[in-house]
Amino acid sequence: MDTGKLIEKCIASLETYERDPNIMISSDLTAFGDVLDMDDDLTELRKVNNGTGRLFPTITLLSSALQIVLRRQCKDYINGGKYASPTKELRDETKSAPLHNIAAERILGMVDSQMRRAPNANVDFIDAKVKFRTNGVMDWLNDDDNDRENDIRYAVLRARRLSKEKQIRHVRNLNLKIQKLYATQVKKDTKKKKKVEQAVDTLRKKSTVSPDDITGAFPYVSTEVQADIIKMITNPNSCAGRMLTHVWVLDDNKTEQRFLGKIVRMKYRSKTVLVVDYWEEHETEKECHSCDVKIKEFVADMITGELHLI
Known about the structure:
Blueprint: H1 3-19, H2 21-26, H3 40-47, H4 55-73, H5 88-93, H6 102-117, H7 123-134, H8 137-141, H9 146-187, H10 190-204, H11 211-217, H12 223-234, E1 243-249, E2 256-266, E3 273-280, E4 289-294, H13 295-304, E5 307-309
Antiparallel strand pairs: 1-2, 1-5, 2-3, 3-4
Helix pairs in contact: 1-4, 6-7, 10-13, 12-13
């Protein structure tokens, strides 16, 4: 908060240097008003006639440019800026603010170092490792208070066990829910779906599939979806890694629920089944459940608009 006055003094000094560069060479004060330490270089510089060289024009240009930068970057702290005259309350609120960003730069440097040492490590691991080192956790654990270490060890092990149990329950419940939804989805518009699936099977038996073939079989499908359908029919593995949204119908055959998902790969030793990860909208990909989905059913849902590749 107090740097505003120093910046204003520096700008005033730069204005003086711009008008008369000789003042910068001959002055015993810095641009901030501090006493200048004389050294051999400055002593020799003052002996030279700088009026005819490049030094004075350079000082003039630099002084002018520095004024522009300081006024732009420090406008909130000088000449009527919102922090130029801070109140006592504002000073009290900002007492705990760091005076520099050395700590932040040090942490970013540690993160960069860890990412270079372990390029395959995920962000959570690197974050935990940097926090562990920055907070001095090991020194804290190695002090004379053994009860503290035992308490922490117990808490960590218990939290890990509870987290694992919760994950197992979640996967089991999601598995049951998906299986139930999938069974209901299969029953929905069975006749219509069967016809679409049969048409997809017919296209899959062809050596090549063109947009005209898709248009002929499904004239209501848009051009954008046609390209994805051709990929799924001719080479499903080329779509591995694609994200998707899939709408399934609930038990009452009226309520619909939207799932997020990702195509993983073709099922091992199968030419007709895909492995797809599904998770609910409020969940993350880590909480997914893998499902086996027949390609013809997958493509049929794309055609009916219940499934969209992203």
